[in-house]
Amino acid sequence: MIRRTGGSRSQGGFGLMELMIAVAIIGILAAIAYPSYQDQVERSRRTDAITSLLALAQTQERIMATCGEYATASVTTATDCDDALGLGGDGIGLGQADTASEESFYTLAVAGDADSYTLTATATGSQANDEDCATFTLTELGIKGAAVLADSEGTDSSNCW
């Protein structure tokens, strides 16, 4: 027969109360951290719009320097002035259908004529939840703009670029 000596027995591990407190603390931290994480992800994806618009503007300026006017057709597949000015190509250009940005978080559109253009990147897919910077614009003069969603209040869109 085994006889125990000493009055108390020590147990290892956590009790139910300690476990519930730990779970509650983790839940509170997650409720605070997740929205901040989502905001950072949206802000980092804005680079997709900026780089796509700047690349498209650079292509338009290169065509202007070579051909004497901005592209009225494809600017992504143009190999010469005839292609760039409307005689061929299938990429985005003035009057062309919208296309997706490099990482597909934005839809790109070009509006204008042979002397001017306005490039627009509109958030799409999961990035459409970005209320602070829903739309980016860039003109041939280098004027940068950004628009917020209609239901967003007090947002300064100058932080988008």
Element order, helices and strands? HHEEEEE
Major β-sheet profile: 5 strands, antiparallel
Radius of gyration: 28 Å
Strand-residue proportion: 15-25%
- The total strand number stands at 5
Task: Going across the biggest sheet, name each strand in turn.
Answer: 1-2-3-4-5
Task: Give the averaged pLDDT, no decimals.
Answer: 79
Helix content: 25-40%
Distance between the termini: 80 Å
- Figure out the total of helices: 2
List the helices and strands and how they pair.
Blueprint: H1 16-67, H2 81-87, E1 99-100, E2 106-112, E3 117-123, E4 135-139, E5 144-147
Walk me through the structure.
The chain is α+β, with helices and mostly antiparallel strands and 161 residues long. The chain is built from two helices and five strands; from the N terminus they run H-H-E-E-E-E-E. The protein has helices at 16-67, 81-87, and strands at 99-100, 106-112, 117-123, 135-139, 144-147. It has a five-stranded antiparallel beta sheet, covered by helices on one side. Strand 4 (135-139) and strand 5 form a beta hairpin.
